[in-house]
Design a protein that fits this description.
alpha+beta; Jelly Rolls; five-stranded antiparallel β-sheet
Length: 197
């Protein structure tokens, strides 16, 4: 009886040790805009709301400045009033990595966009001909937050946005329950060995 329970505890501890660690990134938002409709001054996004102006959803042959990239967002719509693209979801406090692709306007002007994540933000300036380039921001949010993308200006020419992803990242330490199970299994094995001798 002692042998079976000892082996069970050891197996349980090993399984807990091999379980995914808390340091793995967990996607909480992913959007490449390919399931959206194509339109100038678009505001029917599944994951986003446009405020303070307009954005265009282009690509796939419709004002497709960078063919082969599916659908993407021009952050300065067609009304002379650049919009702000806000996430519909609010995310909790914690550690995150926000990644996205930005490209230049492809129409002759250098543009700047602000990426906001809660109380923090980062500005990105790209020349007109810059291709889609992956960007990533690692940050810690102390309070619930939303993500937003806003192009500066209002000339109907904005940076292009695609492939937005937000991942929650845990601490890279074993969870207390994992350590407890592992310690119990090792203790039980040691006790069994001691009684057998």
């Amino acid at each position: 009886m002692l042998r079976r329970s000892t082996l069970s505890l050891a197996a349980l501890a090993l399984a807990a040790l091999l379980a995914p660690s808390a340091s793995e990134a967990v996607p909480v938002l992913t959007d490449n805009f390919d399931s959206e409709g194509l339109a100038l001054n678009y505001n029917a996004f599944a994951n986003w709301t446009v405020t303070d102006g307009t954005v265009d959803l282009i690509g796939d042959g419709f004002f497709d400045f960078l063919p082969g990239n599916g659908r993407y967002v021009d952050l300065d719509g067609s009304t002379g009033d650049a919009g702000v693209l806000n996430s519909n979801a609010t995310f909790g406090a914690g550690n995150y990595v926000l990644s996205f692709w930005l490209a230049g306007s492809q129409r002759g002007s250098t543009e700047t966009a602000r990426v906001s994540y809660g109380a923090a933000f980062q500005d990105f300036t790209l020349a007109s001909g810059d291709p889609f380039t992956p960007q990533a921001i690692a940050f810690t949010a102390a309070a619930p937050f939303q993500i937003s993308f806003a192009n500066f200006g209002g000339d109907n020419i904005g940076l292009l946005l695609d492939n937005v992803s937000l991942e929650a990242v845990g601490a890279a330490v074993p969870e207390p329950g994992t350590l407890l199970l592992l310690g119990s299994g090792i203790s039980a094995l040691a006790l069994r060995r001691r009684r057998a001798s």
